[in-house]
Amino acid sequence: MPQPLALYVHLPWCVRKCPYCDFNSHSAPAALPEDAYVGALLEDLAVDLDLVVGRTVTSIFLGGGTPSLFSPESIGRLLHGIGATLPLAADAEITLEANPGTIERGRFEAYAASGINRVSLGAQSFSSGQLAALGRIHSPGEIEAAVDDLRLARIDNFNLDLMYGLPAQTVDESLADLQTALALGPAHLSHYQLTLEPGTAFYHHPPALPDDDATLEMQLACQAVIAAAGFAQYEVSAYAKPGRRCRHNIAYWTYADYLGIGAGAHGKVTTPAGVVRTEKPRMPRDYMARVATHSASVRRPVDPRELPFEFALNVFRLIEGSSLSAFEAATGQPSEMLRPTLDSLARRGLIERSSTRFRATGLGLRFLNDVQAAFLPAATGDTRSTRGEHRTKSSQSPPTVTGQ
To answer: Which of 31, 219, 323, 358 is the most exposed place for a label (fewest CB within 10 A)?
Structure first.
């Protein structure tokens, strides 16, 4: 029986680039080429269809960049085109990333009418000073107004992105941010530490950040408050109310299959011949030109020796971990490939395991990079990350700072 499929769509433009962001995002031109780009996305999807014949899409994630720069009409045209190209599950989760500073009153109702049923709001902080330091274009009041608009649109399944370890931030200030976020009633929280990524403005001109002891204190104090508010942690930086886990991100973290369309998007599909990764050109103009000549999708078969690392890079982020059978189903390779490394990590107290399942311990989650790197193929020293919709935080592998 064909396995379900996730679809990631990258919309690469922002009002301006945030100084901490290392994602493939670009300052928007005066006239956004919405029609041309949506057309390119649908052509891009058609080129990769041979990889996913017979598969049903169970989640779509529109990420960026700032997807909410695109009009509801453009988003509707895109979703209609996707549905005409691939079968969509009746209950497909369809997420739009949004920047509170780009949402006009009533716009979420139009997005909902186009097919959006989940929204991820890039709040980051509720401090005006911190938002300015982070280069954000919105105010705390605009976050609250966006949430009000979501409720008018009857979109109650929404995520708030919230950061801690911000410039000169105290533990009490991080808790105040969190309490304000919880008061807005999100169904999901992405709560992660600000990190200085190579190639970003902050990396070259770093602000004064709290030290490691202070950020750990923030993390632990905030996690206790999040749990008391009824959210369950299911991934390193992801917390959800019952039944509101992000299905799309779970596809990445379980090493399931997904297509990626758009400038710089990546995909991963397990075929009868093995695991294949796809990659699209990063620059929007180059991407659209390559789509026009049907040459935008670069495919790379994954060497079986890399599969344990790619698998570990994702599944150890999940609090519940994974299983030997899941590795075999996702990669087509024997689980014996994992056993020596699992045994070594268990002896070091970094993971716990039964005869069939394994997961990171509390110590392993603190040193997640070490757990993941243990699966690197010794012959190549390859440190390639599996990148999906956006990168996850707290050891930065594939998804949770997004553009938005």
So the answer is: 31
